[in-house]
Amino acid sequence: MLFLQKVHPLNFEYVRELSVHGDGVRIAGSSFAAQIRCDEIGNFCTRLRLRNDALGNSYDYSDGICEGYRQGHPVPPQLDGERARFEASHRIEVAGAELTIRFSTGLVLKTVSEGIGFNGDKTIVNFDVTHARGFYGFGERTGSLNKRGESMQFWNVDVVLVFPHTYARDDYDPAYVAIPLVILKVGKEYCGLYFDNPGRTLMDVEQMRQGQLIYQAMTGNTDVYLIAGPGLRDVVRGFTKLTGCAEVPPLWSMGYHQCRWGYRTEADLLELKEKFEQFDIPVSVLWYDIDYMEGYRLFTWDREAFPDPAGLNRRLKEAGIRSVAIIDPGVKRDPGYPVYDSGKAQGVFCKTASGRDYVGRVWPGDCVFPDFSQTPVRVWWAGWMARFVQESALDGVWLDMNDPATGYSLVEDMRFQNGTVSHEAYHNQYGHYMAKASREAFDLIDPNARPFLLTRSGFTGTQRYSAIWTGDNASNWRHLRMSIPCTLNLGLSGVAFNGPDVGGFMGNTTEALLIRWYQAAFLFPFFRNHSMQGSKTQEPWAFGSDCLAHVRATIRARYRLLPYLYQCFCQHYLTGDPILRPLLYEFEGPGYEDLSDQFLVGSSIMVAPILHGDGEGEEVLSRGKRCQRRYISIPPGWWFDLNRGEWVEGGQTLRYAAALDEVPMFVGDGAIIPYDNGLLSNRPADFDRIELHVFSRGGTARFDYVIDDRETRGYQDGVYNTAAINAEIGDHEIELKIAEEGPYPKDTVTFSPVLYGHPGEWRARVEGNGQARRSVLKASTREWVCKRIDVRA
Ligand code: GLC
After folding, report:
1. Contact 326 CB / ligand 1 (< 6 Å)
2. Pairing mode, if any, of strands 625-634 and 619-622?
3. Which of 138, 208, 626, 735 is deepest in the core (most CB within 10 A)?
C-alpha cells in the first residue's frame, strides 16, 4: 500500500489534441484517448464526465449521488477555434489541457495549463488555486478545519490496524470515510467540486505544488460535479441535494449514549441503568459491543452472559433506555452456523480471483464477507438483521469494521459480484452498502418508524442510511481538539449526524480531559461516551463526585436543549444545513477561515470550549478559581455570554478564562432557543410545553419551529407544521406572535417565553394558534447552561 506516496504530476501526459464529436469533446495525447461530456443536473449543478477510453464505465458503481440526479441532460459542446465550450448553467471551456469553469455566480476556476492528464488507468486534474484561501469538506479528516497545505487520500482503512504508531498524532490519513468533495473559498465566494469516483483517489491542496489543488484518481473514471456558491451554505445545500440528507432520527437517539467495549453481561447493563438512576443522569441508549455474541457469530447472543436478551432490552425500554448492538460484516466461516450456511447456499459472499469465497481474519477468526453491492445479498442481510433486531427487542444497530477491516488478510483480494468486479470499485463503498442493506432491515420491521443506525465507514451519501461516528480516537487533548474540525468537515460533506467517542476510545482519560470533552461535545449531533476494553473506565461517575457533577450538568443541559437540537435535525433534513457549523457558515471574514476550535450549533449557539488542561496550555487564577484561558473570536453583532450572563459586543477577540465547571458559550442577538423545562428522564419528553428562550438586545427575535409527531416518518410526506415565531420586546413587555401553518393538527405545543439579559419584572403576551394571554413573567436572566439551565425555573 502506498499511503504516503503520491502520483507525481510529471508522470502524466497532458491533453494535446482536441476535437468535438457529437455529445462530447475528444481529447488525446500520444498515450491516451478520452472524452469529456457535460450534463446539466437538476438546474443547479453541472457535471463533467471524464472518460478514459482505456477504462470501463466505472462511475456506474458509485452510489454517491441520489438516484434522481444521476441521469442529467446532456449539453453538447460547441467548437470555437481551438477551444470547446459547454454552455451549461456553469460555462465550461476546454482549451487543450486547460479547463475553465465559469460558475453561474461569476466565480471563475481554472486548471493550470497542464490541467487534464492521464497515465494508464490514472487521471489527474490540476487546478490553479492561487486565489483560494480556504479548502473544506473532504469527508472525515484529522488535522484542522482548513485543509490548505494538506494532502488527503480517499481509501477507507481500519485506522488502528493500519497506523498503530500514529495514534498519538492528529494528522493521520486516510480515515474511515471517503467523500472526495472540496469546497473552495475564493475571495468571499465559495464553490464546490465533488469528484464522484468510488475508487482510490487523492487530493493534494498546495502540499506538492504551491498554488495547485491536484486531484488524482488511481483508477476509474471520474464525474466532476460543479456546485455553485456564492455562500458556503449554498454549496452545502447543493451538495446535500445531490447526495441526500439524514432523515430525522428517533428522538431517543438525540439523547445521551453510554457505551464501552467491556460491558459483558446482563448484570453489567442493569448496573449501568441503576447507576444512571442513582446519580440522576438521563441516559437514552446503552450499547452492546462485540462481547454479547456467541464466539463473535453475527446475529447470536452468548446465552450464559445474556440468558434473555429480549427480556433485558424490554426491561431497559420500560425505564426509557433503548439498546443498540454492534454488527460487523464478517460472518464466521463455520459450517453448521446457520448464518454462514445460508449465505454459502445463496452465494452471498465476496469472491477472490481464484473463484473462492474471500476469507479475512477478524474477531471470529476466519470469516467471509457479504457482497452488499448486490441487491439479493442486501435482501438476504436485511432479512437476518430484521429478525435479529426484532427477536432481541433491539432499537438500533451499530455497523463496525466495514472499511472493510479484514485483519491480517490482504483486503485487495476481495472482489465483488462473483469475482467479476475489482476490489477498488466497491472498497470505499463497502460500509456504505452495508449501511444501505441494514437500513432496509428497518423498513422490513416497520416502514413508518424512524430507524437508528451508526456506521464507522462510509462514502458520499451514507447519511441517507446511517449516522457516522469518527472511529477509534484516543484519550488525549490532541484528539479532543481534532474532534471539532473533524465533525465540522463531515457536516459540510453532508454527514450532519456524526460525532466522536466522547472521553476518547483508546488509552486512559483523565478527570479534566473527560470533563472538557463532555463540555465540548454535549451539543454535538451524536453524543456517546465509548472506550476500549482495558482502558480506565470513563463513565460519568468514574472520577468521583466533582467530575460527576460537571459531567452530569452537561448531559442534563443536552436534554434541556433537545427541542433546539430537534429543530436543527429538522432543518438539516429540509435544507441540508449541518447541525454543527464552522463560524464561516454564518459569517464572512478571514478570521474564520482557519478557526478549528469554535463552532456553532444551528445558527444561534456558539460554543468555544476549553480544549486544554492537565498542566498543558494557559492557566490563570480568576475569581479565586483555577481557570484555563483561551482566545474566543466573537462574530459581528451582539452575543449573550451564557457563562457570565452579560452581552458582549461582536467583532472582537476575547481572552477568556473558564473554570472546570464553565463552558464558554454564547447566543446571538435575535435568537430564540426552544428549551425543555419539564422533568428530565431517560425518555425525551413530549415537547408539548416548550419554553422559548429569547435573546434580544435589538428588540426583536425570531424562529421557525417545526411541529410534527416526532415519532413516525410522516414528516417525509409533508405532515408537519411550521410555526413562525416572532418576539418583540417593548416597555417591560415581551410579545410573542406565533403563526402555525401546515397539515399537522394545530396547537399541539404551548409556548412560553423566557427573557435573557433584561432583568426586572416583565409581562408576556403570547398571540397566535389559539393562545392569547397576558401573564407576568418571572423570567429574568438565567444563568449559564451547565450550572443552572438544567434546574427548573
Ligand atoms: C472497533 C470499533 C470500536 C469497538 C471495537 C470492538 O475498534 O471501532 O468502537 O469498540 O472495534 O468491537
Report:
1. yes
2. antiparallel
3. 138
